[in-house]
Design brief:
Blueprint (H helix, E strand, L loop, with lengths): L4 H29 L4 H27 L5 H9 L5 H25 L15 H24 L4 H15 L8 H7 L13 H22 L5 H18 L1
Helix pairs in contact: 1-2, 1-4, 2-6, 3-4, 3-8, 4-7, 5-6, 5-8
Length: 240
């Protein structure tokens, strides 16, 4: 099936908006219902995000590839799977969609639409957590595309679900999400002053993951191996 540029950009914008509505809205709901238990609030946030990602990738993947993430778009740009102008357009609508999704979450819970986060998330450990989360996410996508393309939605949803709990940063792994979360002073927020370290970690780790995947997931040239084996056998016979 062929889709127009407008359809692809619309899918990226809408998908990212719904993703942020899920992330922020479930954080608000989780915190409200958890009675002060942060672990319970995070669990609610985790389940909603992982499940939502699965559905969003499933329905928007055939249209735009369901990046919803400038770091993922960067990965495909480095692989030459997307042209630079389209990659720039993807990143633009992803960020705009993310901001709209945060506003939607605020509106659903009768909060101020425009906010600036005061939630501190700083330190080398959190930056390393973001690098780990983004590296793992991009590697998951590229590995699933290489070996099990029908499982990308499930693989991404499951990895992010795990990332909420095994990374110190709770796995933003997405520059559009990071930028949008600066605009919510709720459970999911991040201070603007802390965001640059997250963004640097995310983009750097995405580029690293592309390089690792190019080496790790490339099968050996069987014909070349056969030629090498023949030469090796002939050399061994000559030595005898």
């Amino acid at each position: 099936m062929a889709f127009s540029t407008a359809q692809k950009l619309g899918a990226e914008a809408l998908g990212t908006a719904l993703l942020l509505a899920i992330v922020v809205g479930s954080g608000i709901m989780g915190e409200a219902l958890a009675g002060g238990n942060t672990a319970i609030a995070l669990l609610g946030n985790t389940v909603a995000t992982g499940a939502g990602l699965y559905v969003l990738i499933l329905i928007f993947g055939p249209v735009s590839g369901a990046h919803f993430n400038p770091a993922v778009t960067l990965a495909f740009l480095l692989r030459r799977d997307i042209a630079l102008p389209m990659a720039g357009a993807y990143a633009t609508v992803q960020i705009a969609g993310g901001v709209a999704g945060v506003a939607l979450a605020h509106g659903m819970f009768d909060l101020d639409i425009v906010q600036v986060s005061m939630k501190e998330r700083t330190g080398a450990g959190l930056a390393l957590g973001e690098a780990t989360a983004t590296f793992g996410l991009v590697l998951t996508i590229l590995g699933a595309l290489r070996f099990r393309p029908e499982s990308v939605a499930a693989a991404v949803g499951l990895f992010i679900t795990a990332g909420y709990w095994f990374t110190s940063s709770t796995s933003f792994a997405n520059p559009a999400v990071t930028i949008a979360r600066m605009l919510t002073d709720t459970f999911a927020g991040v201070r603007p002053a802390d965001a640059p370290a997250f963004l640097l970690a995310q983009f750097s780790a995405a580029a690293l993951a592309v390089g690792v995947a190019a080496w790790l997931f490339r099968p050996r040239d069987r014909a070349k191996d056969a030629r090498y084996s023949e030469r090796h056998d002939e050399g061994a016979k000559a030595a005898l």
